[in-house]
Amino acid sequence: MATPGTPTERRAVGAAGPKGEAIAAAALRLFLRDGYERTSVDAIAAEAGVSKRTVYNRYGDKENLFLSVLRDTYKSMMMTFRGIAEKHLGDVTDVRQDLTAFALEVALTMTTAPDRIALVRLIMSEAPFFPGLITAEQGAATMTGIITACLARLAGEGRLAISDPAEAAGHLVALTINRINARTMFGVLPVSDAEAERIVTSGVAAFVRAYRPAPPGPAA
Amino acid sequence: MATPGTPTERRAVGAAGPKGEAIAAAALRLFLRDGYERTSVDAIAAEAGVSKRTVYNRYGDKENLFLSVLRDTYKSMMMTFRGIAEKHLGDVTDVRQDLTAFALEVALTMTTAPDRIALVRLIMSEAPFFPGLITAEQGAATMTGIITACLARLAGEGRLAISDPAEAAGHLVALTINRINARTMFGVLPVSDAEAERIVTSGVAAFVRAYRPAPPGPAA
DNA sequence: GTCTATACCGAGATAGAC
DNA sequence: GTCTATCTCGGTATAGAC
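^ inputs. structure came back:
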């Protein structure tokens, strides 16, 4: 119980302290690259520049380390996405343009960073073996929840003809982000930025066509 | 070299012969359930009711068995989908209705059979570790290729306003099949048939709205 | 006291040898 | 079909170093 109040004191368990964070970073890197089963605790310890014993002291066992690291990373990913959404969907001036800019930034953030792809792939891969890895659809709910609120607002203003905002949000995500995700998941070939832009632009265009409000009156 | 000409003679390598098929079936079941790393050759041999030696005689090693079994299963899945597509899209009378029936049957085939979900998940999981597992987007190409042809025909007949049939096919798949896939991939909770029907119906409706041809003239 | 290093244990894996 | 060789893994224990 020496030096109470110092930073080193509140590291009951987990990633607190520089050592703990080095372990977490190394574990994340290897798990993302090799998956759960193919990653050994020895390798993690070596990658972190730490004794294996330290890994076990901090995280108990491999499974706990895996869950801890993945949950933290996933949470931070969701924070990033939330920021992007608020930036673009805070106040919408041009519907098609702002939705495109939003989806495009999300898409490029995923496409540019192979970590994101690997993270999603890893979560999907291990979901059957670690029930409760993600709090069950909490992921999609976070994303579509924000979009749903925005679409409901646009519908209220008469700028889009949407009766079920949640369903419409699902459609928007499906036509843009999920399409790129699906492309990257199967093969390993990365989607180029130009291709991502094409997909997003065309997806938002289709979305806007599907949900455009009826014209006020017959013209031409 | 006894009994030449009998079925047991032409088993150069692979799944020919009843033993080979038993091995393939057992391997598929265990790989789908447990993944590649968590499945042992011992378990496969036991499940197939054969000696482990027989497994190695037929398939060489674990990796080859995995690739062989997955490719065959994937091919057969694609054949199934092709059949469904031709059944519903051979000649389209009511666009919305026929597209819905098509997508719904595909969706229910995937939703009802957990094998399909597990297969897709397994391919995604192991894609980085077995380059060339699937011939790179050949999967999506098969599906969307068929749909593309159908949509091009409908566009030619003026029944849908489609300038890029391949892109439109991507949108249709994204709004229906891929949406259900995404739902099942993250969590493990299965999507109910009713939920699948709701998603497909709403997805096709949005698709038809996005690609409906312009009305011939102002009415009302 | 905590971290490092290393040796160690039992289990289970692939692959091959009778 | 069994049996064995060899390897790796998760996890622990034992030693010493700052």
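Chain A has ten helices and no strands. Chain A has two domains: 13-60, 71-210.
thumbs up if we can close this ticket
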